[in-house]
Specification:
By secondary structure, the protein is an alpha+beta fold. It contains 19 helices and 20 strands. The protein has a domain at 257-356 and 440-536: Gamma-glutamyltranspeptidase, large (L) subunit, C-terminal domain (Serum Albumin, Chain A, Domain 1, Orthogonal Bundle), CATH 1.10.246.130.
């Protein structure tokens, strides 16, 4: 045998042996925000699909079952883990893009920004990214044809899905906007009102749109019949989309943010245009400089609030990496974060006004998240959104596609302030083809012995929610507790600690107030986190769904 052939054979044998040595989970796991989506993921795994096929099935099913949280008219982020002795990580950026006709003055009328224009109707909609992501995942990473992975969602859209308490709550919030759009009202309302509990939501037009996507892949949405109907509907109602906007849309694969933590762990999370991954990384690295694990409950909360205050201050420096230079090396530099941690007083809150000023932001908080792990060790954590509940409350006639209002995530008025009193960000200005900044933070933490997955909807609160779940994980608390843990939040401005009703006792509240923290009780519990844990040594897998929602976590072998 020639030397080169022999060498190649030996190298191949070694490679296969190394791969065979990689640990594998005993079971697959799926955790999503809706039982129908969990079933879609399990069905796809049972038919021979991998985690990436299951992610396609889950995302499409959520588009049908949770039209208030995500959909074909929106986008999102997918964090991928490809199994192997040395796992590979990918970040699929399917964030929506501003139309080419959009600019900084898109919502300015008579010199004043009219925010209503960025909330309701087609002018509020950026170019959707989710359909492109589904086609991309199936083609690049899946084992099954796209048609197979979309079959559960098509069936769900055609046969119907039950109306639950979450649907009714979200529809009530956006009732007036839905009533103003005939196509949306016809699909999502019952005679102009919120549908009754346990009613049936059927979406035949969406089923046909999904069928075209299943048959033709990317072109099945961004060209042909679907594109024609989308453009006609948007233009007729006053939007600015063009055929080129749809034709040119592509997902972008980016390198995930990877940060070494103590105890041999690595944080793998979302890079810009997510600002959430940066905030999460900064918060964890600052906490490593503080004795948070040895602290009592009040002291720990104080530390968490203070690191969040500092991490969120930097958000206004970030934007779409394809159009803005993001100062990540400086924001993640050890000296910088060490100095920020040293500035945290042991017993006193730091007024946000005493920190160097920074631009702020606004962001919708109704999104969805899922996570899936297959028996090979492939995994996906994905956060998807259409921004506000039911997005722009505008459905392109004949498509069943409810459009997003993600244009509201741009800084429409950088010289002034928004509805929350936050000043705008130059880095996040509206520009043609630009992706708006987001807090969506699908996250893995991996070591030689474990893989943990985290993520949640919640707008600007996402990084703080993921952080609290991660701290529970680092504390060794049960997986079921991670998404259930009571939540509190600080985002630099406004200078207030928001907290769920059961987050603090009366004495803890008094102690925090004595330290100078301003506290604001949030009457409605927020977030809908989905998590999983794979213990590599034993192969044991656990998953959990947030008890605040109607989601479901299941294992499958």
């Amino acid at each position: 045998m020639p030397y080169k052939t022999l060498l190649a054979s030996l190298l191949l044998t070694c490679t296969l042996a190394t791969q065979a040595a990689a640990p594998k989970p005993q079971q697959a796991a799926v955790a999503t925000a809706h039982p129908a989506a969990t079933v879609a993921g399990l069905e796809t795994l049972a038919h021979g699909g991998n985690a990436f096929d299951a992610a396609v099935a889950i995302a499409a099913a959520l588009a049908v079952a949770e039209p208030y949280g995500s959909g074909l008219g929106g986008g999102g982020f997918f964090l991928l883990r490809q199994a192997g002795e040395k796992p590979a990580y990918r970040f699929v950026d399917a964030r929506e893009r501003a139309p080419l006709a959009a600019g900084p003055d898109l919502y300015r009328r008579n010199g004043t920004v009219q925010r209503e224009l960025s909330l309701n109707g087609p002018l509020a909609a950026a170019i959707p990214g989710l359909p492109a992501a589904l086609a991309h995942l199936a083609e690049r990473y899946g084992k099954l044809p796209l048609n197979d992975s979309l079959t559960p969602a098509i069936r769900l859209a055609r046969d119907g899905v039950g109306i639950d308490r979450v649907y009714r709550e979200r529809a009530e919030w956006r009732l007036q906007a839905l009533q103003q759009d005939p196509a949306s009202a016809a699909i999502f309302l019952d005679q102009g009102q919120v549908p009754p509990l346990h009613g049936l939501l059927r979406q035949p037009a969406l089923a046909r749109t999904l069928e075209r996507l299943a048959r033709d892949g990317h072109a099945g949405f961004y060209a042909g019949e679907t594109a024609r109907l989308l453009l006609e509907g948007v233009k007729t109602a006053g939007g600015v989309w063009s055929a080129r906007d749809l034709r040119d849309y592509r997902v972008v694969e980016r390198q995930p943010l990877r940060i070494s933590l103590k105890s041999g762990r690595e944080l793998i999370t979302a890079p810009p245009p997510s600002a959430g991954g940066i905030a999460l990384a900064q918060s964890l690295l600052m906490l490593q400089e503080l004795p948070w694990q040895k602290a009592g409950a009040v002291q720990r909360s104080h530390y968490v609030v203070e690191v969040l205050r500092r991490a969120y201050r930097d958000r206004g420096l970030l934007g779409d990496p394809d159009q803005v230079r993001n100062p990540l090396p400086r924001l993640l530099a050890p000296d910088y974060l060490e100095n920020l941690a040293k500035g945290i007083a042991l017993q006193h809150a730091t007024p946000s006004t005493s920190l160097p000023p920074a631009p702020g932001w606004r962001e919708g908080d109704h999104t969805t998240h899922f996570t899936v792990l297959d028996t090979e060790g492939n995994a996906v954590a994905a956060t998807l959104s259409i921004n506000l509940p039911f997005g722009a409350a505008f459905t392109a006639p004949g498509t069943g596609v409810l459009l997003n209002n993600e244009m509201d995530d741009f800084a429409a008025d950088p010289s002034g302030s928004n509805a929350y009193g936050l000043t705008g960000s130059q880095a996040n200005l509206i520009a043609p083809g630009k992706r708006p900044l987001s807090s969506m933070s699908p996250t893995f933490i991996e070591s030689k012995t474990e893989l943990a997955s985290f993520g949640t909807p919640g707008g600007s609160r996402i990084p703080s929610m993921v952080l609290l779940a991660v701290l529970d994980y680092l504390d060794g608390k049960p997986v079921q507790q991670w998404p259930a843990t009571p939540r509190y939040h600080h985002q630099y401005l406004p200078d207030v600690v928001e907290y769920e009703p059961d987050a603090f006792s009366a004495s803890q509240l008094r102690s925090l107030e004595m330290r100078g923290h301003r506290l604001k009780r949030v009457e409605r519990r927020y977030g809908n986190q989905q998590v999983l844990l794979w213990r590599k040594d034993s192969g044991q897998v656990e998953a959990a769904s947030d008890p605040r929602g109607v989601g479901r976590a299941e294992l499958w072998k």
